[in-house]
Amino acid sequence: MMQALPEDARQAQQLLQPLSSDLAASYFHEVVGNLGETVEVRLASLEKGRGVFATKDFAEEDLIFKEPPLVGAQHTSNRANALVCSHCFSFIGSIGIQIAHRLLSRRDAEPVDVNPDYLRSLWSGVAELPYSNRFPLRTLVTCLGGCTDSIYCSEECAAANWAAHHQLLCCGRRAQPSSVMPPAETEQQQRRSSFEAFRESRERLQTQGLHSLTPPIRREPPNFDKADAIRLFREHADETNDAFHIAAQVVAGTLLRADELLINNSTPGSTGSSRERSWAALQHAWRPYAAAWKAPWWECVAIPEDVTDAHAFRSDLRELASDSLELLKAFLYDERFPGLFHLDVYGSIVGMFELNNLDLFVASPVEDYFELCHGEDSSLSAEEQHLTQLTTRPLLDALGKAYDAACEGSAFYALQSCCNHSCAPSAYAFKRAHIDTDGSAVVLAKRSIACGEEVCLSYIDEDAPFHERRAALADYGFVCACEKCAAEAAAPGKAAA
Ligand SMILES: C[S@@+](CC[C@H](N)C(=O)[O-])C[C@H]1O[C@@H](n2cnc3c(N)ncnc32)[C@H](O)[C@@H]1O
């Protein structure tokens, strides 16, 4: 007799199945409906799968669509460079705060030739930089739960992020109402105690089994252990792979959305026992990711050139994902949905970011500020520039070459991730100066596009020679057959040039 699959594997199998064409059609109908219906998502070809198609004519440089990320995070290494809203990723505070943030958070040993007291007064808003009011930024709003990992540009963004996923990922005091917080510790003590807690919880896991460690339901009042477990998860993601932060947003967001559907009794077509209704709600909440192009991270990642043992490399990645998942389960596990915490599902969420390769980018207003104070085409007079530079020159020198560092991260966009590749693309992702100042994806027409034509982006440098393009696309697992590749393949001498 065939043995039944364990519940977690059975649920995972269902979650990893592609959406039926009807469900996918209704999901993408909803997505494009929210973005102005300028495009539709439908089958492009059997080789390519789905694609995005224009539903009207576009002229060159027209906006085709603009969409906010479903989930996203700034790269850990970028946090010291740009202080941005944790929800919409727009720059916040003021030009002075941005510059002070960067110079005060520098970890390199090189001394900065600017008085730290002056930087602190810029940071607190006591001092202001000349002409910085020409680049107004929104004021800082702290996290509803009181953590210092997240900061916002408005109450709306704070509330939206809290509702979307942060309430389950926040380790702040107000998110832990029943917690008994330990007395203030130094950073080193905090690190040691969180690793001790991790070791203890691992030991408990080994002696008592997973069930006794994981909370039965998420709504149980959180305690100090939970805040500590959240910090441990974050530290691990910071040190290993930023994508784990976004994967946690996907899992937390799916759980919250499922609960919302259950509370409002609004899962389409859901009847039956409470267990069946819960599962139907979870599947509905999971739709954006069920619809997404994905594969397990350790299988789809391109092997770096210097790696000789591909098998060992892939199994190391699997182990890393498994460690991250154990840390996540310690505070988020929900026994109704063991499949959502299955390694294959978690690995596929991380693989989804890998395969869709969607960078989060927001240009810095600090660049514009220095352009005004130091640039040749400035609207300031030579005398005004001269006077201003007495203040701004030391700051510019201290910031160095990367004075214009942008906000950089990774995100997942429901519609942009449906765009196929072409080496002769009809569209491109581009942020328009002073218009697109947040983390939304912006897709513009590269040439005129007729209604019904496919909206293709280039995943690589489309100006590279044919063989380089082909090699770069091998990482995505397909051979491009666009008109440019077809022409160059037919005339190899020309293509090699
Ligand atoms: C970001 S997804 C694009 C949407 C995808 N076609 C779908 O059905 O969801 C990227 C994947 O689409 C397929 N793809 C994209 N462009 C292609 C092309 N020009 N030729 C063949 N396959 C392509 C590849 O499988 C690639 O890994």
Account of the protein in words:
It is a single chain. By secondary structure, the chain is mainly alpha-helical. The chain folds into three domains: 35-68 and 414-496, SET domain (Beta-clip-like, Beta Complex), CATH 2.170.270; 95-136 and 365-404, no CATH class; 186-359, no CATH class. 45% of the residues lie in helices and 9% in strands. It is built from 19 helices and ten strands. The chain has helices at residues 7-16, 21-34, 95-104, 116-124, 155-164, 187-208, 210-213, 224-239, 243-263, 274-285, 287-290, 297-300, 310-332, 343-356, 365-374, 382-399, 466-474, 483-490, 492-496, and strands spanning 39-45, 49-54, 63-67, 71-74, 141-142, 151-152, 359-362, 407-412, 427-429, 441-445. The strands form four sheets. Strands 3-10-9 form a three-stranded antiparallel sheet, with no helix packed on it. The protein has a three-stranded antiparallel sheet with strand order 4-8-7, covered by helices on one side. It has a two-stranded antiparallel sheet with strand order 1-2. Strand 1 (39-45) and strand 2 form a beta hairpin. Bound molecules: S-adenosylmethionine. The site of S-adenosylmethionine has 17 residues, from strand 2 and helix 14.
How does the SSE layout of this entry go?
Blueprint: H1 7-16, H2 21-34, E1 39-45, E2 49-54, E3 63-67, E4 71-74, H3 95-104, H4 116-124, E5 141-142, E6 151-152, H5 155-164, H6 187-208, H7 210-213, H8 224-239, H9 243-263, H10 274-285, H11 287-290, H12 297-300, H13 310-332, H14 343-356, E7 359-362, H15 365-374, H16 382-399, E8 407-412, E9 427-429, E10 441-445, H17 466-474, H18 483-490, H19 492-496
Antiparallel strand pairs: 1-2, 3-10, 4-8, 5-6, 7-8, 9-10
Helix pairs in contact: 3-4, 6-8, 8-13, 9-10, 9-14, 13-14, 15-16
The structure holds S-adenosylmethionine.
S-adenosylmethionine is lined by residues 47-51, 293, 355-356, 417-418, 420-422, 476-478, 480.
